Amino acid sequence: MLEMRRIGAGLLFALAAASPALAHGGHEQGLGWTLDPLLTVPLAVTLMLYLVGRARLSRRASAPITGAGPFLSGWAVLTLSLVSPLHEAGERSFTMHMIEHELIMLVATLLLASSGAGGILAWGLPKPLRLSLGGGWKSPLQSLWKRLTEPVTATFIQAIVMWAWHAPMLFDRALESFGWHVFQHACFFLASLIFWWAMLHPRRGGYGVSAACLFATSLIGGALGALMSLSQSPWYAEYAAMGMTGIGLDATDDQRLAGLIMWIPGGLVHGLAALAFFYKWLRSAEDSHAALPVH
Fold first, then answer.
1. Which one of 36, 97, 218, 245 is CB 3.0 to 4.6 Å from 93, fit for a cystine?
2. 178-183, long-range: CB within 8 Å, 24+ apart, which pairs?
């Protein structure tokens, strides 16, 4: 009970006073923005393509183009997660690192997948490149995308990425190298974007399969978070070497708090989404039954 109270107090402290604590948690300098071109250029190009594509389509479309809110919100959450002081905070505290990952995988990619912005982004490309999208190489890419976005396949992909990147060897590599850190986040982003797209646009099995996959994901992520929370020693050498991490917890308690964030809020998001899709599946089944002719 005492350990849970310490972890709960740490969570409140982390969320309410993260920046001041991190600025003095064994580091003389404060937290800064991560404005490396490896991050900022792709983010800026994506936003530009969307705005240009939306403007071009607006001049041709007879009806208003929807989806701007989810796309811009998702882009903003993704950008702030990667370049705001939260990113540097994640190098000093596993809890902050976990919050960054959860924002990317639970919020940003869900919003982006729900925006349906693929066609708009294509219209933002220069005309020769846009026309080339209809070339002969398009069909193999479409086939690959369909396979990746089968709900069960997408669930396995995200689970493998999540568990593999939290293995100590790979996670420590990401903490030691900025390039590996960017690659880690790219894997998380792509895997979760594929996952949410598959959940939102199911083909075979409809929303019932999506609900089952979301429920399975809540168990998969929850199990990993539980292992972290119940561990008696830190998994990652970089955080263990700090002694006290940036939010005023030792490495073990910091890891337990990070595990709780993955276990409870993360599992809750997937669990609630599973219930929502299960409800949609039931409604769809009822509507289909009601449409049958009465004999």
1. 245
2. 178/36, 178/38, 179/38, 182/38, 182/39
